[in-house]
Here is the input.
Amino acid sequence: MGNVTREELLQLMKDKENLEKDIVALSEVLKSQGVGMDEPLVDDEGYPRADIDVYQVRHARHGIRTKTTDLKEIMKKIEAGLANIHAQARQGVGIETDISNGLTLSNVTSEKERSPFARVLVVCPGSPAADAGIQQNDLITQFGSVDNSNFSSLKSISDVVEHSKDKPLAVWLLRDDQHLKVELTPRTWSGQGLLGFKIRPVSAQPDR
Here is the structure.
């Protein structure tokens, strides 16, 4: 894609979030029917199964496939847009990149406008979060498609993680007044969960 504005990129991220929510809702439809994406919808005699709503299942499956394709296209546009924004920033105030640990340090004005919505309380050694370079007390300003404008609860994060297993997510952090971008890939590891860190909304009261 050509030159992209920050507003256009934010709209793409909102579109991505809406698609992810739609896919979750359609997946719940399949779950309620006790089927997945591949089970046959006819019985051994070739008649539509009587134990499920065949039309509803077909509709949900079609929606999931269509929206998953749309989501992949939007992800490509977002990645291209981010690269474009970064290129524009380098020509302006500049971005310093530390290739060794995957962190991107940014002093771009637009990034300073980001407001944190969660704080990292614990990072487990050897976890995906640790591998990404996330540290205790980092403030999260964006997690995939989630930012301060659409974050409602920790479920907002878990929904994104659930549909991004083994796929890299862009995570923006605020550390010592410096904006950092890391690439976090939710995956199975030796510990619990797919991330290996504990976070808390910044509005929550600290531990006593």
